Amino acid sequence: MGELEDSVMTRVWKWNRPVTVREVLEDLQQERSIAYTTVMTVLDNLHQKGWVRREAEGRAYRYEAVSTRAAYAAALMNEAWSQSDNPAAALVAFFGMMSEEQREALNDAMRIVQGPENPGSAERGAER
């Protein structure tokens, strides 16, 4: 997922409603010179990847996000990690770049994923 896809998705999330190619184009043109067909292609690619859904409106489409920014960020991280020839080393390098706040967020996420600190303790208690 490239920088332009990220920029387009940012607009789709920001507006939180179905958007047209023209709306995204006009917003992007405030930052860079870009063609209508480029934005149309990016939105079509995002649709094919399942990140946006589209609905016909006349001869054009309106696009809206299928999932959250968090899910998109997770997919980006997973894609980058899975392309590494040494996933463990990639994780070590990534964790080394993290700020203290990011490390705390990682610890919180791990606690959520792992569940209670003593999994199975309720079952063991019931067996007695």
TrEMBL record:
Molecular function terms, GO-annotated: DNA binding
Keywords: DNA-binding, Transcription, Transcription regulation
Annotated InterPro entries: BlaI_family, WH-like_DNA-bd_sf, WH_DNA-bd_sf
Keyword Calcium: no
Domain of life: Bacteria
GO biological process annotation, one example: negative regulation of DNA-templated transcription
Pfam families hit by this protein: Penicillinase_R
SUPFAM superfamilies hit by this protein: Winged helix' DNA-binding domain
Family from the record: Belongs to the BlaI transcriptional regulatory family.
Name of the molecule in the record: BlaI/MecI/CopY family transcriptional regulator
Native source species: Streptomyces alboniger
